[in-house]
Write a structure and sequence with these properties.
With 82 residues, this protein is mainly beta. The protein has one helix spanning 31-34; strands spanning 2-5, 8-11, 15-19, 22-26, 39-42, 50-52, 64-67, 70-73. A hairpin with a 2-residue loop joins strand 3 and strand 4 (22-26).
Length: 82
């Protein structure tokens, strides 16, 4: 997963599980058994871009843009290939 860290882009390896319409993720595969996910993406709310009302503390970044009363969040994912 590509994430913004202090204005710099960083790729982080994550373990994903599709559960219904939620794509949940953990840092390591074994974490799925013992820990709650560190995040999730609701695939029902996906369109070309994720749009939501911006909380007052939202800051524009490489993965978040404000457009008036809307915040657009991008999720950039890639998968290993053998």
């Amino acid at each position: 997963m590509f994430e913004d860290e202090s204005g710099f882009g960083a790729r982080h390896r994550r373990w994903y599980q599709l559960h219904g319409h939620l794509l949940r993720y953990w840092t390591y595969p074994d974490d799925e058994k013992y820990k709650p996910p560190i995040g999730s993406i609701d695939l029902l709310k996906c369109s070309e871009k994720f749009r939501r009302p911006p909380p007052p503390d939202d800051v524009e970044s490489l993965v978040l843009a404000k457009q008036g009363n809307t915040a657009i969040q991008w999720y950039l994912l890639s998968a290993d290939c053998e």
